[in-house]
Amino acid sequence: DVYEVTVQTVSVSGSAGTDKTTSSYLTYSAMGETLTEAINSISEKLGLIVSLSHCNLVIMSPSALTLNPVRTFSALTKPLALPEQALIVATDHDIPKLFASKIPSTENISFFLQSVLLQNLEAGGLTSVSVKDFLAMRCSRSGSVAVPYLELTEMPDKPISATGGGDEKNYIVDINKNLVVDDNKNLLVDEDTAKAINLFFSDKVKNKLPVPTGNGVVEFRIVSNSRSVKVEGMKIIAKIKMDVSFVEAQGFDTPYILNCNSPEVIKASKNLEEMLKKSLVDSFELSKTCGIDFLGLENILYQDLGRTLEKDCLDKIVFDVDFDIKVTENS
Prior knowledge:
Order of helices and strands: EEHEHHEHHHEEEHEEEHHE
Helix content: 25-40%
Largest sheet: 4 strands, mixed
Strand order of the largest sheet: 8-9-10-11
Number of helices: 9
Strand content: 25-35%
């Protein structure tokens, strides 16, 4: 195998006698039979020793994510000081072209990704996976992990700045999908599946959930959620308790203002329970079909059954989940 490594550096310079500084971003790429060889080649081009101690983001191809995780990240964390807290994103885009892409909201796309993921938008339903998380999950019994997947879409309408211009291509960044990976394969899953995975794993999710009900739509926001699991042989029974606040309702022809106790809102909360249950059950069926245990169910069984649990038993697992949702007023 040949590794291709790309690093982006920022050079900050200032003028004597002024407080103004300018930043220039430079991208360097190199190939090598090992990661170390590729990065040493970049060091030679830079004339500097490459250190990843300030790196907050690692963007990897699907093929790189399926490699042996310990060998891959040992080459980055030990000699190059990559922090365990650095976040991982997957993409199929050409990395140098990705770094050169322009998005309207910021000067640099890598800074945009860092700010979105480091501001804990996991709470908004996005998946957030650090190097430490990735290694723990890939080295677990399930051996799989869901990583946020980056896509770029060219904006159909080019924004015009206050100073004029606007002829450059601008792109929208989408990281709502997940790439699920294990030792041998990977699969891109849609936004609904990604949110189901995140909801099953994380108690930090606080995103809004619009629920079609009758002729209208009721929107809730997750306030808190907690998961409990019970194991009965090869059957896993999960229960997720959730407090949601009632945000708004549109499209209902009622003579009264809806609140958290209105029949329409209560009905919507029951619909939400069924929607979320279906989403997780569908995710489980997808995991069995693709043979990637991205819900970590083998880990749950292993905690209960220990070494008596046979390997690669995903197709023998029975999974059931229920939601218990309590509605409160929006605050």
